[in-house]
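Q: Structure tokens for this one, please.
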Amino acid sequence: MTPAARLQAATELLDRIVTAARDQGAAADTLIARWFAERRYAGSKDRRAIRELVYEAIRLLGVRPESGRAGILALARARPELVELFDGTPYGPPAIDPAEPVAEAGLMPKWLGLALKRSGLANAEQAALLQRAPLDLRVNNLKADRDAVAAEIPGSEPLPFLPDGLRIPSDLPVEQLPSFRDGRIEVQDAGSQLVSLASAARRGQHVVDLCAGGGGKTLALAAMMANHGSILACDVDRGRLQRLPPRAERGGVTIAETRLLNPGQEFHQLADQAGRADVVLIDAPCSGTGTWRRNPEARWRLSPDRLAKLGETQRYLMRLGAELVRSGGALIYVVCSLLDDEGASQAEAFLKAYPGWKAEPLLLGAGTAHGPGLRLTPLADSTDGFFVARMIRP
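A: Here is the predicted structure, written as tokens:
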């Protein structure tokens, strides 16, 4: 593909991403994968160049642009060398009309920046939310030793605060590695590994992973438990939950059982679990402000109304989780958000509503004490942004 054709492809892709963000559709990485699957003729260099253009434009624009074209024009304004590619050649973008709309560059919507400031994140911390993310692995200690895996992967570096964590070159094709195919490694951000450690799950325990999704934390918990005990992995999203069994099989995990839940019927469907769990992990649906390094278009999807609805879901899940924890057991509340409305304030409200429950201090080797829990940020900890609290039932 010519440089002009790549730029036009990026424009078309960005247009799809803008539409999906407006309509709460598929994430950018999913849309990009689908787009390339439909265009097998695009070579690896073309794919890389197009993807970089798309994500550069997304990071540049704090507010959702009117169209993909308006977004790419903003990128061309920031990178003047791109302007000459708008030459109207076949497969390239049409010439620029001086009167056509150009999106405005910015970090994020003003209301969201103010909310992050109220949550204690200054300008430098906010800017770091949109830097490129590193690539981290969790070595599956059920099958492998971290040092042995590190020796197989050039450029890998052990993460000092994680027993099984490795940071590897970001352009490494992980799924082609033998250690990935045979289940010795999983892609998992260092922050996600750390909040899993906050569970302190042990061999022989019964754990409920209430929002398991594709199962990344379920697998980490199983490794912490040495594959002894039981884990009930639940979610309301059938597609995401179906990814867990094959991942568990590849990783040699035999203690995880899945349960698909129907929205609004979770208390009834989990009645058999009431008061049984040693640990309940709630990785709650949230705004994802801590994951903008990987999903920068997520900030285009947010609004005060959506944030309020997420807050209702988080409180509902904490009430549900509290019913499942045994006496003396632990409720682990996690959000990949740095907004206090989703993190510290939610944990504080829970502790007020449930007398006798206590927040247990967390010492994970990284993070900063924040409210009743711990906060991880890209700038301070070189991880995705998380809030995690460990609360003990009396």
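A few notes: The chain has 16 helices and 13 strands. The mean pLDDT is 95.
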